[in-house]
């Protein structure tokens, strides 16, 4: 996980989502962006604009995607990346080949218009009530261009089964930021390559950033949305409890670096199982004891783990960091395979702890 963490080191927040997409997921992305912007005073002026564009990106995906197409190697995708001076919102969905030329021409035309011309075009469409089967006649794309004040950066790639993948990326900058070349033109190429890696690994969700209560709640709700589409089974509850424990451990035991407890978390599909990985910095003095605890748990049978878990519940050893070892036992008793872990020493002599389990 350290390599992925370092790959995304320039971002304050990176949240990639390739699971079920609907309006409830939109709200979770808004919650996360609001948290980051609220804690980055220089971005306060773009809060409402960012929330609007998140909704528009999701609606664009829902409106234009080919719902019937099932293409191997593709997943609908949404991502938010945040820096101290702005955010980039990006998405990918399938488009039927018959709509590709029309969509491309529409974006090219929108990109050629001035702000005044975009406003006029927007008003004319509303007056004519020019509504197509795919929603407003480009209103969403026009709103994106107006809100960002920049040309829409996009890519249409023909794949198979008569469909193309449609990527679009939007950059929202602090209005007080000095003029500079747009990050998003480079970023779109980087994002497409990153997206393909995520699809290849069947990732549902990847988050890199600060771990706090305000972040964990929407992350957990996103995963719950994918695990449980109806009544929640006991197996699904165990998965969620285990994931919550991993996230809480990162928040509770992680080391603050440059003033915040940052880390990385992902969940991927693996047949009928889910692979959960996490990574965060820990104190040098904690590494030895953590390794000993992990090795001790790995050496136990599942029956021994369950028995020790019940014993710890009955006679808890409370420390300043919580019920000693209980969280690790909670995780171990729900894993389908042995826990995997790694300690990486960074060039700055920090210790980065990577953790991997399989849930079934």
Please report the distance between the alpha carbons of the first and last residues.
Answer: 21 Å
Q: Work out the radius of gyration.
A: 22 Å
Main β sheet profile: 10 strands, antiparallel
H/E element sequence: HEHHEEHHEEHEEHEHHEEHHEEHEE
> Briefly, what CATH class of the largest domain?
Alpha Beta
Given the C-alpha coordinates, what overall shape results?
A: elongated
Average predicted local confidence, pLDDT: 83
Q: Output the CATH topology of the largest domain.
A: Heat Shock Protein 90
Which ranges are low-confidence, i.e. pLDDT below 50, for 5 or more consecutive residues?
319-323
**Strand pairing plus helix content: what structural class?**
alpha+beta
Approximate helicity band: 40-55%
- The tally of structural domains comes to 2
- The number of strands is 14
Q: How many helices in DSSP terms?
A: 12
Q: Please, could you describe this protein's structure?
A:
The chain is α+β, with helices and mostly antiparallel strands. It folds into two domains: 12-200, 2-Layer Sandwich (Heat Shock Protein 90), CATH 3.30.565; 204-360, Heat Shock Protein 90 (2-Layer Sandwich), CATH 3.30.565.10. Helix content is 46%, strand content 25%. It is built from twelve helices and 14 strands. The strands form three sheets. Strands 6-7-3-2-1-8-9-10-14-13 form a ten-stranded antiparallel sheet, with helices on both faces. Helix 2 packs antiparallel against helix 3 and helix 11 (302-314) packs antiparallel against helix 12 (326-332). The longest helix is centred in the C-terminal third of the chain and has 20 residues, at 234-253. The protein is elongated, with a radius of gyration of 22 Å. Mean pLDDT is 83; it is low at 319-323.
